[in-house]
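Continuing from yesterday's entry. The apo prediction looked reasonable, so today I'm repeating it with zinc ion included to see how the binding region is handled. Same sequence as before; SMILES copied from the compound registry.
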Amino acid sequence: MSLAPTASAIAAAVRSGEVRASEVLEGCLEAIDQVEGQLGCFVTLTPELARAQAEAVDAQVAAGAPLGPLAGVPVAVKDNLCTAGVPTTCSSRILASWRPPYDATAVARLVAAGAVVVGKTNLDEFAMGSSTETSAFGPTRNPYDPSRVPGGSSGGSAAVVAAGAVPLALGTDTGGSIRQPAALCGVVGLKPTYGAVSRYGLIAFASSLDQVGPLAQTVEDAAALLDAIAGHDPMDSTSLPEGVLPCHRALDRGVAGLRIGLVRELVEAEGIEPGVRRRVEDAAEALAAAGATVEPVSVPELALGLPAYYLIAPAEASSNLARYDGVRYGLRVDGADVEEMQARTRAAGFGPEVKRRILLGTYALSAGYYDAYYAQAQRVRTLIVRAFERAYEQADLLLGATTPTTAFPLGAKVEDPLAMYLSDVFTIPTNLAGHPALSVPFGTDDAGLPVGVQLLAPALAEPSLVAAGAVLERSAPALPPPPVAASWRLGVPR
Amino acid sequence: MTPAGWEAVIGLEVHCELRTRTKLFCGCRNEFGAPPNTHVCPVCLGLPGSLPVLNRQAVELAMRIGLALGCRIEPSVFHRKNYFYPDMPKDYQISQYDEPICVEGALTLPDGSRVGIVRAHLEEDTGKTSHIGESGRIHGAGYALVDYNRAGVPLVEIVSAPDIRSAQQARAYVAELRGVLVATGASDGRMEEGSLRVDANVSVRRAGSDVLGTRCEVKNLNSLRSLVRALEHEVARQVGLLEAGQPVVQETRHFDEDRGVTVALRSKEEAFDYRYFPEPDLVALAPEPAWREAVAASQPPLPAARRQALAELFGAARLEGPRAEQAETVLELGLDALVRAAAEAGVDPALALARTANEAAAQAEAARQVDPGAYVALLRMEQEGRLSATQAKTVLAELLQHGGDPADIAERLGLVGLDRGALASVVAEVVAAHPEEWSRFCAGEEKLAGFFTGQVMRRTRGQADGKLVAAELATRRAAEAGAP
Ligand SMILES: [Zn+2]
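Holo prediction written out below.
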């Protein structure tokens, strides 16, 4: 069930001539307008750019030219993905005025597939956070309860899809930043295999962990978006040469005969809410009912993921964020000499969470500490990869919760970084392994807040994730529409 | 010179800009001298979201350098070297750290000494800052301008073992290395344009000791002359300290060209912590064996082999004295193939080497373009006496400037030499005309050789070859002395 028209419905209607892309877009912009004031999903709206793109699609339709698979589908893009000529801020003061001269590969591929970019969504500053509260431009709110966070860091993308204002959005996932907000907002979020989607034009947080992926109302739409953006890119040396198999075709494959491991560490962990745990167990039953063999498995090494991640990701970030020094672009705060200018620029330009992680990472890489911290974390990372390999000898897919809790109130964890970091405890291990994972909404907790269940798969097994995700979607308890929702139907009257 | 009783221990780090078509991690042109910031793109400017992609030609040239230095080519990893510097767009440099592409080689110098090569690795260059202010100097500069054309240009850093024992040996090492780098096509060898930049690690110890002293790193050695001056100064400075009972402090020093001294830049305590870690935006580099073999099979001849080939023209294992200097000149200028071609065509190797190291070398650029066949033909004409030395040089100048057939050039310029028979009859005429002088010459009055040569020149209007005239006079005198 979806609130707004799905991407597949829009693409079909545009293709058949039933509705024009420009009409779809106006409906979408109107829908955004209905909810944006309450939710704060966007850093920048791009109606002019979107109108030009929609008109280009309409011209193709009129000319009978071949159309892309997402022709006329409005898409929101997380504001850490470069868009040529459009501000790309990472929700940071340091990049507040920066306009990239180029499009990220994922964005360029979306547009080539016919999608229409309606705006840039809010995120935790430089994607560092789990609540979208570290954005320099203010928080995004959860459509299910605007006093609660949407999760993060792709909170703007998750919230705008959940509110039914835009059918599809791009997010990025370094430690759970697509799946965690998807779970907290009741939408579908997919983190692809590392290297499946080009990182070219994704402003790096932690290069060895970052991946671009879809947030959508349905598994089908998520698969369509992934198919459009995946594939080798010569501009990204870590982009996989072979690429992911098309996911769309796996939608109706089902789970009969699949072995699915219910991961004890992703269900019984300390701090998991009973409402969440119950839903994961329901999901396991649903998969079994659909013909899968569901067995409990234990992967104790997953508990090591969080500490390893909080050394590796900040270490890489400390280096990736060095370039914001006031010399070439972005914010500059003058000083008596270059060093003072750089120091003042960075002091004024970065928020406290970004500074905390730069400090952590700098420390972890420093002479005398490297072996104890960074190198040790890399050894742990290898352990986790091995542990997953063993688990995938017994199971085709793994199942667990996406997050230990449902959406928490704004401000609840800002002062307690460790509590905030624990929000990603279930999502981080797959990033460390470079594997794909999918979060699918599966009912609510007792308070009516959405719960996400997570499917994990070995590298490049996205089609299996999509097949199982579609089964879960069909068997999930109905998710009520959020209190903050756009009313938007296809084919607004002219 | 190293002070008596002391020994210098020197290791050199040579940074060589590779002559690739494009930069190390992007498609921008690698070209010196373009207007500022015209060869830049999101990647080499380090714009947010940009990613590096390794240049295959740079890897190939690095392998060529490694193979030329007898190194093993190893699977390697790029690291990030983190430090803030406005020249450096990402505020880290992508370099190789503990797993470089080339390891453990050696370079043998012309004098037979051997300098070990610890490693050679790939890295990216930085941009260039110019400080502009009222004074026009760094201190008190009002602002600075950065040109990022050089940012991302590929470098290979070649690190020698501390096997060098004097400033002169250091000079010979860099000169020989430059020859290797030019021969492999890796570098244009132009130190004055910064294509080769040298840092030196210097320590001293009592002669005969095998303990290593505290070392200093000396930077900014941008010509062979600066290298020698800086090293001689630094060695003397360290010896002076130790002889005065003061310690050498481990630090980085800068060579001040104007004053000819090294000055402290930063101490060990102030040294940067570069926080090296593996570059996550690149994958490990492991050139496949077939590629490595193809590179090895297509290595051009290196200076050492070419030097050897020149020596063999003289039937020697090694050239000495002025001939060795001539050989170095033609090797450095890449003109040794002309010498070999001439010698193989029967020209006296001494004549071929001399003409090439002097007259041809004076116009090296033109000489590299000259048709070797024409060059060899000219030397043969001189050798056979069809042209005098003076005439041959005139024809050569014309040949280098405009090309053409040397025989045609000689004819056009009216430079027709005398063959030996014609010369002998002119000499006979002169001797017959001056019997008294001839008797005195035969009696040993050597200075009369000049008189006879002058007479022959007059009769031939300068067309005779002075050396041949001298030879003819000597032959004639010997014949008369031997006559009954
Ligand atoms: Zn470039």
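Comparison notes:
- The mean pLDDT of chain A is 96.
- The longest strand of chain A covers residues 437-444.
Will overlay with the apo model tomorrow.
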